């Protein structure tokens, strides 16, 4: 049994506000305040608009927020490029005695991240030997994202039928792909032939003569802009997903002038993930996050193989060679309630290194969470309350030693909203994942298209469901009509 909850509970201990161990004032062994590491990358959100900046300030990872700095990632873990420290001054790694198998992050994306994939273990070892400067880790990096705001992301290849349709629809895109690759795409029927065709297409697009691709990108942008501004209005019956796709190309091109990677929405699924929903990116699957804020957990590695939409190091050859070329987006997973309590949702990926729990403590409620007896880290996502008597605020993070006591959360009745806490530790439910590994054809597609398509079985398990379900419909209108629609948070 992991949790006990109840109403009108009382904080068991004194109200310290320093995030430090409570040993001095009571005999309970509790969490220890933790100082994460903040990273600024070009795609981050600037200044206090960035959750990463706000959390970093609260957790003392930074002393002040620079309004011009793009705060992108907050790292909680033992990775050597961003090792967390405890408030006692000790490194987290030294306190645990070994590395955590996972890295826990918060991401604030104001513009698109690179078109990328993370290597599997075999590729990671090879890349680390061949190019240790750009690939510092010999470990794989499967990752799971949980949206804190509506989150836009390109994940996985579109189905070949869709790509073939988009090649015919956009001659400028077609001009960046070799005749041989196009023929393969148009003719492929069987799964293996489809994968082969997809590899040909991706490789051909990525290695297209830059003069040709930037000229074609310009032509495409001129045409799409004219259609947007109604000079050449699109047909009335043009499906919403096609308009969304065109808008995404225009937006990416604005962010990365002259980069043909802006055409990525024509071959990658473009998804909108609702707050509280998650998706799992297995190794060797292409993706590019576009905008929004997430928590992310991954195996402890920082290896990214990139091909475009980035000022960072690109490695097209390795990316082309390592992808699985399976098709369809990842399944979207709403997590699963822990059997004991609806106050705790677990997000469990199909990899042993990590899982994430999101706890919600309503005003006037308390929640006791049993120590999982393995090293765990926590971050307060929103709301204020008490953790073993310590006052908690959004952004504070903690290490929970395996030999500490159970944790007692309490939120006073007078608070206006619940306190939400995210916790990561090694995967204890590997046999019952809520997220699925997309290891074959049959993932979901970002939409249904009106061209003949093969059946698209949905591989969801646990709380998984198709991205075309409820929330997609709920948010689609805002998303369509106003890219800057007010963003509800988790
Ligand atoms: O290489 P860039 O574009 O900065 O993106 C790097 C980031 O990509 C995301 O998909 C995640 O994997 C993050 O953990 C990673 O740090």
From TrEMBL:
User: What are the residue boundaries of the Phosphomannose isomerase type I helical insertion domain, all occurrences included?
Assistant: 184-268
Q: Name one GO biological process term.
A: carbohydrate metabolic process
* Chain intervals for the UniProt region annotation (Disordered): 1-23, 452-471
- Hey, what's the signal peptide range on this chain? none
Q: Does the keyword rRNA processing apply?
A: no
Question: What are the record keywords, sorted?
Answer: Isomerase, Metal-binding, Zinc
User: Residue limits of the Phosphomannose isomerase type I catalytic domain?
Assistant: 34-159
GO cellular component terms, alphabetically, are: cytosol
Q: Has the keyword Magnesium been applied to this entry?
A: no
Q: Which GO terms describe its molecular function?
A: mannose-6-phosphate isomerase activity; zinc ion binding
Q: Which domain of life is it from?
A: Eukaryota
* The name this protein goes by in its record: Mannose-6-phosphate isomerase
